[in-house]
Design brief:
Oligomer: homodimer
Number of helices of chain A: 8
Order of helices and strands of chain A: HEHHEHEHEEEHEHH
Low-confidence stretches of chain A: none
Number of strands of chain A: 7
Radius of gyration of chain A: 25 Å
Mean pLDDT of chain A: 90
Number of domains of chain A: 2
Structural class of chain A: alpha/beta
Largest sheet of chain A: 7 strands, mixed
Largest interface: A-B, 45 and 45 residues
CATH architecture of the largest domain in chain A: 2-Layer Sandwich
CATH superfamily of the largest domain in chain A: Endonuclease Chain A
Helix content of chain A: 40-55%
Shape of chain A: elongated
């Protein structure tokens, strides 16, 4: 009788131990799985070919003189932007970079909902790509109220924030000391989602002319 | 005998249960306790009196015409900067805001180790506070290599990152649409700590003149 009870107790202990380990394993596994995307990029970026983002066959057939297959800061920035599958909300002071314009047009052509808020003065300067986006049918709204709409952020699919000091210009990418921070931390992303919505509504031309 | 064993098993089960609950409680408590600081501020900021940051007695005795006791974006930004107890590493393109200059000088006077990296061209323009910081004995290094040292970030005590689109100017604070993101997420803070160190060493005047 005593031996049988010992076996039962040991068995019970073994079951309790394995259950506890399994529970802890699942808990940590879930925490590990939920590791939030956080990345920082610094500029100026090295120069490298990014043609394969726009012409998939170029991966093996581009013969331009730039280095190929190098994961520069600009390469990673483009990859984050092009990861959009449903929406891209872009709020940028100055936008003159041709590769970034190509990325936005590519997303638009794939059916991704693109919305752009920009600065009135800077959207009219020589080299600005804002006019090209408008001609392609992308909805752009310009801030007319503040001295400058100085933001430089994008929200991808409502959950990935791309923000920093970097304007979407060639000088910023290739010459300046700049930073870009990419995060999916909801406490950081959600305020930018709300701010984009606020600026989008605030700069609705219908709304604006109504208030004149 | 059988009754005694039953008591032992039930007792063992109770002990296992309470231990498991305690373990889970501690685990969740620690996770809750470790909730990382993440905050986003948008500008332009409302105008309010911030005199109490610099003259503690002003909390009850300031009679200026500005609203008092309002937690504006600028108020919160100042509070984050003034939370520094050991170091402030500042890397900012344009610095002309008098209240931010007062905050940096206050930290310096309290013995906080302040280091500043700024843009060569913008540190020489009218209204720049960089000269005032230098006169007070704060070590400032100017970037001479890139087209623009366009960063606008600060690291407080090596663990709190303040970064965004906002230059440290009056126009940025009171007129522009701007953002500031404050985080203690190590994955985001550490790259900026390293970048500051890199820029600090890179722009060491001794190093610079050696390379001429």
């Amino acid at each position: 009788m005593s031996v049988l009870w010992t076996v039962k107790v040991v068995g019970l202990g073994a079951v309790a131990l394995t259950l506890s380990l399994e529970l802890l394993g699942r808990l940590f596994g879930r925490l590990k799985h939920r590791k939030t995307l956080n990345e920082v990029l610094f500029f100026p970026s090295e120069v490298a070919c990014v043609e394969h983002f726009f012409t998939p066959t170029a991966t093996h057939s581009c013969f331009c003189s730039l280095p190929h297959g190098v994961e520069t800061s600009f390469y990673r920035l483009l990859r984050h932007i092009l990861s959009a599958s449903s929406s891209l909300d872009l709020c940028v002071f100055s936008f003159s970079n041709a590769d970034l314009r190509r990325a936005v047009l590519l997303l638009h052509s794939k059916g991704v909902a693109v919305r752009v808020v920009s600065d009135k003065d800077y959207s009219a300067i020589t080299g600005s790509q804002i006019g090209v986006l408008r001609k392609a049918g992308i909805c752009v709204r310009c801030d007319v109220g503040s001295v400058h709409m100085h933001h430089k952020f994008a929200v991808v699919d409502g959950r990935r924030l791309i923000t920093g000091s970097l304007n979407w210009t060639l000088t910023a990418v290739l010459n300046n000391m700049e930073n870009i921070l990419i995060t999916e931390e909801p406490d950081l992303v959600q305020p930018f989602v709300k701010e984009f919505h606020r600026l989008w509504v605030l700069n609705d031309p219908a709304q604006y002319y109504q208030n004149q």
